[in-house]
Structures are given as C-alpha cells and as structure tokens.
Amino acid sequence: AQSVTQPDIHITVSEGASLELRCNYSYGATPYLFWYVQSPGQGLQLLLKYFSGDTLVQGIKGFEAEFKRSQSSFNLRKPSVHWSDAAEYFCAVGGYGGSQGNLIFGKGTKLSVKP
Amino acid sequence: DTAVSQTPKYLVTQMGNDKSIKCEQNLGHDTMYWYKQDSKKFLKIMFSYNNKELIINETVPNRFSPKSPDKAHLNLHINSLELGDSAVYFCASSLDSSGNTIYFGEGSWLTVV
After folding, report:
1. pLDDT, tens digit, 9 for 90 and up, residues A64-75
2. With a cut of 70, which residues of chain A have pLDDT below it?
3. Fewest C-beta in 10 Å: which of A11, A16, A20, B28?
C-alpha cells in the first residue's frame, strides 16, 4: 500500500539557516510527489511537484526538492529560511485507489523559525 | 479570483444537527475531492468525483454524503453530527484523475459541540 513518512514532527531553525525536511514514500510505480505548506489557520498551498524528468525541482518561495528513487525520498530544501516560512509542511504522493489524482499525505512537519 | 472556494469557512454547531459545506471551482476541472484534516493535522481523502461521478469513497460513515450537481460543484452534507466530526474539511480539484496538480480550497473549520 502507498504511504508517506515524514520522520520529523517538529523542526526549529534559525532565520537565515538552511533547511531540509525529510519525506520518504512507498509506492509501486513512478510516483507523483508533492510538497504543500499550511500556515496557521490557512489552507494548503502547493510548493512544488514532481511528475517526471529532472529529479531536482524548483518551487515557489525559494524551495526545491530532490527526488531520489534509490532512497524513495523527496526531501524539501531551502538555503536560507525566513521567519515567514514558519508553517506546517506536508509531503504527499499521488496514487491512492489507483488514481494518481488521489493524494496520500504524510503527517506533516511543523517548522518553527528562531529570530 | 479564488480558484477553489468553500463556504462556510467556520461552522460551530450542536451534536445531532445536519449541516452542509459547499464547494465550487472555477478552473474548469473535471475532478473534485473532499479531504478531512483531524485535530492532529492528519489529512485523508474522503471522496473523489470525476465528471460528477463518484470514483473514490473512503471508509466514511454514511452520515457523510457528497453531492455534485455539476462539474464545478461538490457539496458535502453531514447528517446527525457527532463530536468526532470536528475537523477541517478541504475541498480540492484537479484537471482530471490521472495525475495533475491538485488545488485546495482554504478549508472549512467545523466544530461540533
């Protein structure tokens, strides 16, 4: 069965420091992978996605993620974190019920940013 | 212009009541979804509709009934509300069900008291 694991429940980084949020997935075929961000009291905003092609994908707000098939990972990175990046981050894989459009989410990683 | 809009954003209601959450998308998409986010922030798909037809119906109590009057709308009706139904409900849409970017609405915060 498909699944997504985000090993870190809560991460705190200093403003200006680099960030890496981990995501591992379990999926039988080539996965469609997504990262979403949710600010407090807000909806879900798509940061980036991977469908095929270049394994390093660029997203909005200076985020990038790298798909590594051998490690079943799709980690999210940002070279310099801003205080406004504090939010909950969700990794997701498409494919629930045999349809790539149905997302399976990880349990999220809460990012706190220290001044 | 809001691509996926849902109303109401906040809803507080008593146990046993029946309530509806409306969702509309103006993207011309064929597929719409309802997701539930529980108190621990865990997101899980509830329903998926493609061209007004139900294609995914996750293990959800019969008290929850989606209705799609047309491709642009997918409403969620909940009967006999229970305390455990308190959650954030997200509507979403995508071009089709074969694997495209899924756009989410801003969520509806339901509190059952």
Report:
1. 999 999 999 999
2. 95-101
3. B28
In this complex, the residue of A36, A51, A107 whose CB is nearest that of residue B42 is A107
DSSP letters spanning A19-77: EEE--EEE-SSPPEEEEEEE-TT--EEEEEEE-SS-SEEE-GGG-EEEEEGGGTEEEEE
Residues with Cβ within 8 Å of residue A84, at least 6 apart in sequence: none
Supply the pLDDT for residue A107: 94
Q: Does the beta-carbon distance from A96 to B56 stay under 8 Å?
A: yes
Chain A residues within an 8 Å CB radius of B107: 42-44
Quickly tell me which residue has 């909806």 as its tokens.
A43
Q: pLDDT for A22-32, tens place per residue?
A: 999 987 777 88
* Residue A5, helix vs strand vs coil: strand
